[in-house]
Amino acid sequence: MSNNKQYFLDIVKHPVKFRMFLFFKLPAAFFCGVRFKNIDENFCSVTVPYKWFTKNPFKSTYFACLSMAGEMSSGLLAMTHVYKRTPAVSMLVVVMEATYFKKATGITTFVCKDGAMIKEAIGKNEKGEDIAAFYSTWSFKVKAPHK
After folding, report:
1. Among residues 95, 105, 145, which one has the least CA distance to residue 129?
2. Rounded distance, CA 139 to CA 118, Å?
3. Can you tell me whether residue 92 is helix, strand or coil?
4. Three-class SS of residue 123?
């Protein structure tokens, strides 16, 4: 594993540094309680709780909160692979597709387990039942050098 990948993973795994990153760069995810659970260069799992701040009127987790966690599970893997690359690489979600199977009424975990593809995120509840599947298509482009 390259030093850049390991450095990025060390930041994500640091309890304070990653929460500060969320607070300043992804405040909605911070306040919704979206958290990474496990990560390496090929696998990432992210959770989102069912709580007052994430609920909808139908007594389940609001779809936007599920979407944030689904995107983050693939996005953290993508960032692992592009962090401090030379030349620099920008990344952007260009397609987001979701399928919902049942209400999310507890902690939902999204897993991206294919670091090479970086596009599939599956959400499960505490019982291991599928809640939703998010498919993120990322665009990666080499950034123009600064002059």
Report:
1. 105
2. 11
3. strand
4. strand
Length of the chain equals 147
At 7 the pLDDT is 93
Domain segments of the chain as ranges: 3-142
Q: Two tokens at 75?
A: 């996005």
Please state the rounded mean pLDDT for residues 75-102: 86
The class level of CATH for 3-142 reads alpha beta
pLDDT of residue 127: 86
**Beta strands across the sheet bearing 35-39:** 35-39, 44-48, 108-112, 120-124, 130-142, 89-100
b/e code 34-56 from CB counts within 10 Å (16+ = b): bbbeebebeebbbbbbbeeebbe
Q: Whole-structure pTM over 0.90, yes or no? A: no
Please count the other Cβ atoms lying within 10 Å of the Cβ belonging to residue 31: 13
Unique residue bearing structure tokens 């760069």: 25
